[in-house]
Amino acid sequence: MSILPKNELHKPSGTPRNFFIWGATMSGKSFLAEHFPNTLVLNTDGNSAMGTAPSIQIRNTRKADGSLDQSCIKQLDDIILALGTEANTYETVTLDVIDDVCGLIEQAICLKAGVEALADIGYGKGYAMFNSALQGLVMDLKALPINVVYISRENDITDDNNVTVKVPSLKTKYYNVVNGNCDLVVHTQHIGKNYLRNVTEVRRQYHASEVDDPKILNILKAIPGALTPEQTTKAGK
């Protein structure tokens, strides 16, 4: 049997599965993420006790002499393997927060090499190892048959015109890797007594009639701009 697919057009999936949620502290990022179905939280900021979803603390463990015992890279690999091969009921995995995950990956590489910074590993090898680890993590998560949610904090930057804008705190080069594999980017804000959400980037137009997961559809309905109004045709056309 040929490994090539049949040469025919197919209908693209109408359900987003990979999400990036960013915002300031206490703006409702984790609250929104908790509404995704059957979530496993990969936690880094110590807030897992505040939520109700099962969680795993992502960290690098050290030996008594300070050297690396087990890296977060290995820990994440083991978790993803378990999600993909073991019988479980999880429908979503959330990284809270991806900024810290990147920092832990960098720390793991430095500890293993016995250096203080990636730049101390010669010939750009440290940066290459980091890029490979991050891209592998994102691609492995995307390959899982479940929803993936990345959470990031918020930064203010001032442009050349002295205008301050809010952006995800994840470094741009890392954001490009993660966002390049996401379907929807959502910004959360807490203004007065109101918690606001808005879509800042979207891979394609999503119509309610095309979303085949009712749980995801309910979440999209609560995010202004996530769904595109259905096209209507005039009578007699």
From TrEMBL:
This is Phage NTP-binding protein. It comes from Levilactobacillus senmaizukei DSM 21775 = NBRC 103853. The lineage of its organism: Bacteria, Bacillati, Bacillota, Bacilli, Lactobacillales.
